[in-house]
Amino acid sequence: MPGQGTCFDETNPEARKKESVYHQVKEFLDKGETLAVATIVSAKGSTPREVGAKMVVTAWGEILGTIGGGCGEADVKREAIEVIRTRKPRTVRIDLLDEISSDSPAVCGGIMNVFIDPWWKERDQEGSVRK
Amino acid sequence: MSSLSEALVQVVEQGAAAVLATVIEVEGNDRLEAGAKCLIRDGQVRAETIGDAGVVEAILRESAVHLQAEKSKLVSLNMPAGGGKLEVFFEVLPAPPKLVVVGAGHIAVPLVKMAKVLDFHVIVTDDRLAYANRERFPDADEVLVGDMAQMLKEMSITPSTYIVLITRGHKYDEPCLREIIHSQAKYIGMIGSRRRIKACFQRFRDEEKIAEEVIDRVYAPIGLDIATETPAEIALSILGEIIKVRRGGKAASLSGHQN
Fold it and tell me: In 10 A of CB B193, how many CB atoms?
């Protein structure tokens, strides 16, 4: 099955523990950056990763984590930069059926909805946290 | 005041189970915006930016189902009395699954190795130091030596705990099973021939007055029907069954359990 190596990740629990998405988010927020967190919220057909998979995009277009390698990730990155700029979340529909990039190892063929959510420090501290 | 990201980091580091609910779409409610969130841990709201008690209450109620199923899901919530229609994504942050291997014999060795590959927190226990030791189980997270039934009695068993009884004989399996049969464990499997298992369950019914539906929880004989021959193959069939239970698959169990 081609593309498994690029589509799946995060197999080591210790690494996951120390470098979970939220560790990364917190680290960037502490530095005062605005981030976009992209999450697959629903999927139909063959998609490279499961519902709940996440990818963090920084204001500089740097990507941490993956929602499936070549499969629509470029579109999500482009939208994520807009989300960071406007600080307004949006949901993006990624149609992998039309993607004719047969040279990409990550050929899939489903549809997924990706929610892209901006995170920044002040917003992160808004929720009345109860102990 | 601590932040939401900090609370999420704590969930991961403490191996807790939590649900992060995010509103991703709002129709007919001006007070609520996409991106509003609610973090639920230990059945309580830990942080929220929703600001509407009714919506928070509905999210809290809904979250329990998804936490139980260990599956993240997008859900439509129709709020009463002008609360609008919401699309809410429930992201489940499950507690890491824990596998308790009772009996450190020849099946336990490949079982522990494979379970580590599958990211379980693995505890192996036996009353014989010659079996339950670090040399035999270098990958295990915990190796415990002592009376097996007693150790199970003292162990924290949660809905993300999976227990495999593979001791050297029914003399040992039975008291262990008695300790855990009423526990919250997501899975209890016991090795043994059909004849011995039948006799064991009969004693549970007669002497312990254990209800049929409680006895029915036990996967015995243990494992999926894949015609195993070697210890490693048996270990694989046991883990296959555990994954089936965890994820809700349909493969045939030797015990005849559906899911």
Answer: 11
Domain-located, residue A4:
no
In tens, the pLDDT along A30-76 reads 999 999 999 999 998 877 788 999 999 999 999 998 888 666 888 89
CA dihedral of residues A131, B97, A26, B74 (deg, nearest 10): -90
Q: Which residue has the tokens 């980091």?
A: B9
Closest CA of chain A from B197, distance in Å: 36
In a domain, A66, yes or no: yes
Q: Which of B144, B154, B21 is nearest to B88 (CA)?
A: B21
Residue of B nearest to A10 (CA): B119
d(CA B258, CA B235): 20
Any idea how long chain A is? 131
Rg (CA), chain A: 15
Half-sphere exposure of B175 (CA within 13 A, CB side): 12
Chain A positions in Cβ-Cβ contact with residue B46 (cut-off 8 Å): 129-130
Residues of chain B with pLDDT below 50 are none
- Reported ipTM exceeds the 0.90 cut: no
Directed axis angle between helix B231-247 and helix B108-117, to 10°? 40
Residue A4 has pLDDT above 50, yes or no: no
Residue A16 pLDDT exceeds 50: no
Nearest to A129 among B7, B34, B74 (CB): B7
What pLDDT score does A9 carry? 40
Domains of chain B: 4-93 (no CATH), 98-247 (3.40.50.720)
Provide the pLDDT for residue A128: 58
Interatomic CA distance for residues A64 and A71, integer angstroms: 15
